[in-house]
């Protein structure tokens, strides 16, 4: 096990080196500003955090179609590799608005940010995967309440699990272990980005990889067995619009216009899945992720955006509270921080943006 763990750590080191040398983006601790539509210097500028994932596709759509300018503001994007990096930059006021899922727990509970809208169903494609010949893949439904989940306490105990910690994939791992009667102390969890975790799975340097789209869909298409997902574990999740405390306090009018434009984008993307899939492929490719149009179409289908019609039916921030409660149970969030989540959820900006107030 020590030899395997050492190999895994070496793989992580190589992955991080390649990532740093890849697309030319700065490292996550010093994000680069990519710029927005640049249409009108007189318009107020909003610093928008983006990541190389589906939940930021509406931002790209807004920029390409001038929805920011049409709604009276101008987007300036700031690139981050993941939600953990976004939270680290939040404390330094490096961005004003962004889209997060599980990482939003820390945004609200620790950094004083606000959740103002839920904009995407993020359960789909959040997988733990193993090779077909893994002992874990030979056991299904050991917990009768979760018939589609693979593995049991004996087959999973001691496994080396690779994932990006502090993310929604980490939540998937912890919930999977809980369903099997295990805790994180019963396995070896090693943090690395999703492509590196996938490579570790392929090379046998880990027994389980917890992946996010598009990497998860690629692994599934190549025959790796999905042992759990947020869907099979009955864990609801949304991607949410998160705003910094300062922006929430000082820039309400701009945020209302941003939310209005954001839902114009989600409406358009949901109305044309073929266009959305091609746009997602271009988004992934431009950010250094290898995938296929088919995988992107699957992600669009299984992780739909919330439309302006659906938005009023969702209890904003509920999934963040569910995730926060789980973080507390797993000692990933101090219990005294948990009440802060509820005080940092506000649906009034959404209601104003959609004309509901």
Explained architecture:
The protein has 357 residues and is an alpha/beta fold. The chain has two domains: 2-18 and 124-229, Periplasmic binding protein-like II (D-Maltodextrin-Binding Protein, domain 2, 3-Layer(aba) Sandwich); 31-121 and 237-353, D-Maltodextrin-Binding Protein, domain 2 (3-Layer(aba) Sandwich). It has 16 helices and ten strands. It has a five-stranded mixed beta sheet, sandwiched between helices. Helix 7 (168-179) links the parallel strand 6 and strand 7. Helix 1 (2-20) crosses helix 8, helix 2 packs across helix 11 and helix 12 packs across helix 13.
List keywords for this structure.
357 residues, alpha/beta, D-Maltodextrin-Binding Protein, domain 2, five-stranded mixed β-sheet, three-stranded antiparallel β-sheet, 16 helices, 42% helix, globular
The tally of structural domains comes to 2
Distance between the termini: 58 Å
Please identify, by name, the CATH architecture of the largest domain. Answer: 3-Layer(aba) Sandwich
Task: Give the amount of beta strand, in percent.
Answer: 5-15%
Largest sheet descriptor: 5 strands, mixed
Task: Give the name of the CATH superfamily of the largest domain.
Answer: Periplasmic binding protein-like II
Estimated helix fraction: 40-55%
Number of helices: 16
The sequence of SSEs as H and E is HEHHEHEHEEHEHEHEHEEHHHHHHH
Q: What is the β-strand count?
A: 10
Low-confidence stretches: 1-38
């Amino acid at each position: 096990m020590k030899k395997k763990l050492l190999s895994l750590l070496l793989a992580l080191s190589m992955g991080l080196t390649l990532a740093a040398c890849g697309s030319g983006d700065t490292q996550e601790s010093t994000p680069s500003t990519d710029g927005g539509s640049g249409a009108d210097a007189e318009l107020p500028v909003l610093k928008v955090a983006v990541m190389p994932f589906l939940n930021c596709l509406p931002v790209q759509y807004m920029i390409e179609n001038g929805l920011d300018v049409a709604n009276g503001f101008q987007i300036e994007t700031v690139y981050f590799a993941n939600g953990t990096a976004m939270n680290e930059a939040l404390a330094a006021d490096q961005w004003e608005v962004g889209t997060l899922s599980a990482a939003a727990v820390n945004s609200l509970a620790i950094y004083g940010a606000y959740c103002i809208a839920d904009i995407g169903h993020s359960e789909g494609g959040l997988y733990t995967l193993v090779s077909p010949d893994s002992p874990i893949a030979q056991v299904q439904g050991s917990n009768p309440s979760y018939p589609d989940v693979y593995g049991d306490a004996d087959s999973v105990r001691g496994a080396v699990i690779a994932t990006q910690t502090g993310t929604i994939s980490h939540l998937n791992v912890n919930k999977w272990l809980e369903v099997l009667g295990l805790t994180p102390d019963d396995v070896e969890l090693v943090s690395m980005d999703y492509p590196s975790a996938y490579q570790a799975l392929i090379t046998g340097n880990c027994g389980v990889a917890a992946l996010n789209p598009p990497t998860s869909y690629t692994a599934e298409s190549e025959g790796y067995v999905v042992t759990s997902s947020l869907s099979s574990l009955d864990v609801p999740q949304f991607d949410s619009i998160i705003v910094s405390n300062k922006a929430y306090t000082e820039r309400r009018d701009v945020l209302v216009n941003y939310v209005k434009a954001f839902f114009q984008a989600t409406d358009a993307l949901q109305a044309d899945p073929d266009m959305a899939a091609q746009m997602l492929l271009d988004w992934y490719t431009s950010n250094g992720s290898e995938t296929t149009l088919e995988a992107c179409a699957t992600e669009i289908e299984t992780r739909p955006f919330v439309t302006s019609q659906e938005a009023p039916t969702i209890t904003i921030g509920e999934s963040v509270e569910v995730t926060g409660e789980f973080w507390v149970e797993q000692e990933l969030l101090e219990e005294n921080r948990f009440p802060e989540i509820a005080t940092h959820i506000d649906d009034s900006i959404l209601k104003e943006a959609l004309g509901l107030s």
